[in-house]
Amino acid sequence: MLNNNKQLYRDACLQRFVPLHHQPWWLDAVCGAGNWDVALVHNKNQEVIGSWPYCLTKKMGVQMVLPAPFTVYAGPWVDAGSKKFTSDHRWFKLLAEALPRPPLFLQNMHPDVISHLPLHWSGFEQGTRYTYCFDSPMDLDKIQEGFTPALRNHIKQAEGSLRLIRDDEAVDTLWKFYTNSLFKNGIKPPAGLMVFKRLHAAMLERNAIQIWLAVDSTGQAQAANCLTLDAHTVSTLMSGQTEQGKSHSGLHVLTWNAIQQAASSGRNFDFEGSMDAAIEQAFRAYGAALRPYHQIRRVKNKGWGVLFQLLV
Fold first, then answer.
1. Stretch 241-246: mean pLDDT, rounded?
2. How large is the average pLDDT for residues 13-31?
3. Angle at Cα 109 formed by Cα 105 and Cα 114, nearest 5°?
4. pLDDT tens per residue across span 251-271
5. H-assigned helices in 125-223
6. 113, 130, 147, 278: which is deepest, by most CB within 10 A?
7. Cβ-count burial 261-282 (b if 16+ within 10 Å, e if not)
8. CA angle 39–43–46, rounded 5-degree value
9. Res. 82: pLDDT tops 70
10. Is residue 72 within 8 Å of residue 190, measured between CB atoms?
11. Dist. CA 303–CA 6, nearest whole Å
């Protein structure tokens, strides 16, 4: 039997904006249709104006809330028309009270959600993370002026040796480059290819994805970048490159292309930045604005807090 909150949420998302990672179809793909739920708040007309989706995960036989695979942002979302300061506090408090209380709870809030105070009052701890963003409308000439000299040289080099093509079906090439890049750094992908193919199909159906390849003079792909799109923002979901692609600055030129795609469509661009020092340095070279977002967590007790550190 379908969870009533989830059905209400599915219906409401047809009428209201929520960020891409909050979309029911996204959660179906990355969590599995039966492995996520949502807390809701309504206005006096019983319209959904606030939501807090979460992915349910089992670790060692215990159910907990952890970030879903391929999903940076989650947390509460309140409609723009309801975002007066006092209202935010009220709605966020109600949403927090409607959440389950597993022994471990961890999510990253969307950068547009500024205040976490009501969640602090509800027992959540907070940490700050960072991404880099360009806001629409963009002046591409000014953005280029903000590039570091090294980045300008990298892009110029790439434009002389690589050609960019869009192939939204190039899942296997993208996945190979992405996972190889992770494995070289001793990192496992957050989920397997089957989960990503499920997400890819859902995005493709909704025109929410672009896959760009940097190919050499023989037509061989040397780098790949996967972009996601909602009504407001273009983001990088995953990327990777071969050693030859790296020597020809394939990802540099693909990232510049991603910014241009966002600008031409009137959207923002979010690097969905990493806290890894080397990746952060690469993103910072584009001159985008540093933007904080909240990581919130709630643990049952100190013992679970120790386990929390091991799991995440």
1. 96
2. 97
3. 130
4. 999 999 999 999 999 999 999
5. 140-145, 149-161, 171-184, 193-205
6. 113
7. bbbeeebbbbbbbbeeeeebeb
8. 80
9. no
10. no
11. 32
Count other C-beta atoms under 10 Å from residue 41's C-beta: 20
Q: Cβ atoms within 10 A of the Cβ of 14, count? A: 7
Cβ pair 98, 51 in contact under 8 A:
no
Rg of the chain over CA atoms, in angstroms?
Answer: 20
Contact 110, 91 (CB under 8 A): no
**pTM exceeds cut of 0.90:** yes
Q: What does the pLDDT look like over 65-80, one tens digit per residue?
A: 999 999 999 999 998 6
Who contacts 167 (Cβ-Cβ below 8 Å, separation ≥6)? 211, 212, 213
On whether the CB atoms of residues 164 and 254 are closer than 8 A, the answer is yes
DSSP E strand boundaries for the chain:
36-42, 48-59, 62-65, 77-78, 104-108, 125-134, 163-166, 209-215, 221-229, 233-241, 268-270, 289-299
User: Which tokens is 298 given?
Assistant: 């709630």
Structure tokens belonging to residue 162: 């690589």
Which amino acid is residue 78, in one-letter code? V
* Cβ atoms of residues 228 and 209 within 8 Å: yes
Longest dimension (CA), the chain: 63
Cα–Cα dist 16/12, whole Å: 6
Q: Is the four-CA dihedral 107, 207, 224, 152 of positive or negative sign? A: negative
Q: Would you say residue 2 has pLDDT above 60? A: no
| Predicted pLDDT of residue 1 | 37
Q: What are phi and psi of 112, to 5 degrees?
A: -75, -15
Categorize the per-residue pLDDT at 273 as very low, low, confident or very high, splitting at 50, 70 and 90. Answer: confident
Is the predicted pLDDT of residue 85 greater than 50, yes or no? no
Note the residue count of the chain. 312
